[in-house]
Amino acid sequence: VVMSSTSSLKNSTCKDLTGSKNRIINLDHGDPTVYERFWRQTGDKSTIIIPGWQSMSYFSDVSNICWFLEAEFAKEVVRLHRVVGNAVTEGRHIVVGTGSSQLFLAALYALSPNHASQPINVVCASPYYSSYPSMTDYLKSGLYKWAGDADSYEKDGPYIELVTSPNNPDGHVRKSKVNRSQGLLVHDLAYYWPQYTPISSPSDHDLTLFTVSKSTGHAGMRIGWALVKDKEVAKKMTKFIELNTIGVSKDSQLRAAKILSAVSDSCEQENSKENESFFKFSHKVMANRWKQLREVVHHSELFSLSQFSPAFCNFFNRVLEPQPAFVWLKCEGNVEDCESFLRAHNIITRSGKHFGVSPKYVRISLLDTDENFTQFLDRLSTIQSL
Ligand code: PMP
């Protein structure tokens, strides 16, 4: 198979007729195609039609701090958090963003002091989401700058700490790490949904980010939301988005409202096996994948996985084990560069070095298609028997 560098990015659909061993499996990105099967079954329940005359204005509700926020979307955000029990929405301003990525930048802008002589330091405990350092520094802002691992951060003065829980890449539940009071915290809860981790209590922080990308799997819709306690911070985040993209696609917000509503409906109307809720479906898929993966890795001397403690999940009403969206795999023995090792077996992963830790680790997406996941497991088991 001949592939250009761009097509190799999304090569999972590219079939190799010369034998499956040569097919490259790209599990570098967390592209959530695993959920497509659920959404295909929902038909009209998750479909919207937008007539040509609709959504023409820039504005949604000029009386709202976030003047481009569609009321229907805001309503479904509040409803879904109530149904799932993963976030307090009372006393919060909702700011919508083009993915939580835009909201991350809006949060850095909003939390940076106005007239500081130095950029404020931005930290996160390693292993941290590999995009944080690059997103923070790529425009060489005078307002904020990446300052690395929160575990070893000891400088005086204000700082911004990113808390990702459960964490990307390793799936662990986290709390803030810097042991000081001057921190401005951004909680990135992209994975705080029942299919990935037990919902122990509603999150209740100053500034929390969520996204449809990992919750429902609609990464291509580019919709995220922030729950913000402080009015001035919500205003500044809104200003950032105004300066950046003059609002957020109304079409996407309306579609997101429909998708979130279909998820809440599926939870509230669940009464039989045929009528499975979105989270029951996605939890089952993830449980199945983790079970198969653990079996393969268990028989291996080359690889190891982290262990997770079970906890009570208020959503499913029972004790459950975490089942993260990514595998954080460690190469044991004398393999120092796990990414290159797996690349030689035509599996593309992301090295631990992008997450601020050793290249003995790699991050592997568990959200890809059934076909790619099965191929990946097959290949992993053959690597060990070689
Ligand atoms: N935060 C974390 C921890 C993520 O893993 C991702 C997606 N990889 C994002 C934010 C960005 O999500 P979005 O698609 O909403 O921009």
* Count of runs of 4 or more consecutive helical residues: 11
Percent helix range: 25-40%
CATH superfamily of the largest domain: Type I PLP-dependent aspartate aminotransferase-like (Major domain)
Which radius of gyration do the C-alpha atoms yield?
A: 21 Å
Order of helices and strands: HEHHEHEHEEEEHEHHHEEEEHEEEH
The total domain count is 2
Poorly predicted tracts of residues: 1-19
The name of the CATH topology of the largest domain is Aspartate Aminotransferase, domain 2
**Distinct small molecules:** 4'-deoxy-4'-aminopyridoxal-5'-phosphate
* Mean model confidence by pLDDT: 93
Name the strands of the widest sheet in spatial order.
2-8-7-6-5-3-4
EC number: 2.6.1.-
Family: Belongs to the alliinase family.
InterPro entries: Alliinase_C, Alliinase_N_sf, Ethylene_sulfur-biosynth, PyrdxlP-dep_Trfase, PyrdxlP-dep_Trfase_major, PyrdxlP-dep_Trfase_small
Subunit structure: Homodimer.
Describe the structure.
- The protein has a seven-stranded mixed sheet with strand order 2-8-7-6-5-3-4. A four-stranded antiparallel sheet has the order 9-12-15-14, with no helix packed on it.
- The longest helix has 21 residues, at 278-298.
- The model is unreliable at 1-19 (pLDDT under 50).
- It has helices spanning 5-9, 36-42, 71-84, 99-111, 131-137, 212-215, 231-245, 250-268, 278-298, 338-343, 370-385, and strands at 25-26, 93-98, 120-124, 144-149, 159-164, 183-188, 207-211, 223-228, 303-304, 311-313, 318-320, 326-331, 347-348, 350-351, 361-365.
- Helix 3 runs parallel beside helix 8, helix 4 (99-111) crosses helix 7 (231-245) and helix 9 packs parallel to helix 11 (370-385).
- By secondary structure, the protein is α/β, with parallel strands linked by helices.
- The protein has two domains: 5-39 and 277-385, Aspartate Aminotransferase, domain 1 (Alpha-Beta Complex); 56-267, 3-Layer(aba) Sandwich (Aspartate Aminotransferase, domain 2).
- The structure holds 4'-deoxy-4'-aminopyridoxal-5'-phosphate.
